[in-house]
Amino acid sequence: MTHLIAPSLLSADFTRLGEDIEMVNRSEADWFHVDVMDGVFVPNISFGMPVIKAIGKIAKKPLDVHLMIVQPERYFDTFRDLGTYCLSIHAEAVTHLHRAVHQIRELGMKAGVVLNPHTPVSVLEEIITEIDLVLLMSVNPGFGGQKFIEGTYGKIGKLKKLISSSGSSALIEVDGGVDLNNAGKLIAAGADVLVAGNTVFSSADPAGTISKLKNTVPV
Ligand SMILES: O=C(CO)[C@H](O)[C@H](O)COP(=O)(O)O
Ligand SMILES: [Fe+2]
């Protein structure tokens, strides 16, 4: 499978969000990455249901929702109703991860588990065959435009080993500080999905940058 690109709307220009969404619709991007922050799990608040509802009305590509909230189980139904394709929850935010991922799948969504930079891949050992995606944070969550953590390459390698040795078909997504310099190395390490916020939306040619990310070759 060729890698997928998921532009993060966190870095979009909210005064012209509709235009930025239309740009992504027309671009070579595969998914919309939607970052939901509650000011408790992470030290920032992003946007909530009315904004996501508006995004869903015009987005023509699947919504890849990254929940950075405590007790995410409270909102699984709501995110399904908002048209979420893949719902990712932090391993650090739930006590009963197994129950939570099954609830997500039973609602008809793909289930993703997110790991903060300090959380080892080994926490997924007993659940890797029951999830659709692992989202590795390559920055500490909460803000766009942060510096990529270099240890992520090694973590992707460990995750790849766990996935292949278990027979899991989970995708590996990398989120935070992804740019045109590290994309090729991330794909070579085994990343299937690259999230990019600042790199896309602060560029002079966002659609062109998405195209460059999409056509990046492993190095
Ligand atoms: O989850 C996130 C932050 O918590 C964002 O998806 C991520 O930071 C993307 O932004 P950038 O590419 O600018 O780093
Ligand atoms: Fe994210």
UniProtKB/TrEMBL annotation:
Its cofactor is Co(2+); Fe(2+); Mn(2+); a divalent metal cation. A divalent metal cation binds at residues 33, 35, 66, 175. It comes from the Bacteria. The active site is at 35 (proton acceptor), 175 (proton donor). Catalyzes the reversible epimerization of D-ribulose 5-phosphate to D-xylulose 5-phosphate. One of its GO terms (cellular component) is cytoplasm. The keyword Manganese applies. Keywords: Carbohydrate metabolism, Cobalt, Isomerase, Manganese, Metal-binding, Zinc. InterPro entries: Aldolase_TIM, Ribul_P_3_epim, Ribul_P_3_epim-like, RibuloseP-bd_barrel. GO terms for molecular function: D-ribulose-phosphate 3-epimerase activity; metal ion binding. Substrate binds at residues 8, 66, 142-145, 175-177. PROSITE patterns: RIBUL_P_3_EPIMER_1, RIBUL_P_3_EPIMER_2. Binds 1 divalent metal cation per subunit. Belongs to the ribulose-phosphate 3-epimerase family. Gene3D superfamilies: Aldolase class I (3.20.20.70). The gene is rpe. This is Ribulose-phosphate 3-epimerase. Its EC number is 5.1.3.1. It catalyses: D-ribulose 5-phosphate = D-xylulose 5-phosphate. GO terms for biological process: pentose catabolic process; pentose-phosphate shunt.
